[in-house]
Amino acid sequence: MNASRPVKIGVVAGEASGDALGASLIAALHRRLPNAEFVGIAGSKMQALGAQSWCSMERLAVRGLIEVLRHIPELYRLRRSLYRRMLDEKIDLFIGIDAPDFNLGLERKLKAAGIRTIHFVSPSIWAWRRGRIKKIGRSVHRILALFPFELPFYREAGIPVTYVGHPAAQHAADDSSRIKARQILGIDNDVPVFALLPGSRRSEVMEHAGLLTGAAWRIRHHVPNARFLVPLASRETRSLFEALYREIPDAAPLTLLDGRAEEVLRAADIGLVASGTATLEAALARCPHIVFYRASPVSVWIVRRLIQVPWVGLPNVLAQRFVVPELIQEEATPQRLADEALLMYRDLERRAEIERTFTELATMLRADTGALAAQAALEELGYAHRCGS
Question: What are phi and psi of 62, to 5 degrees?
Answer without folding.
Answer: -115, 130
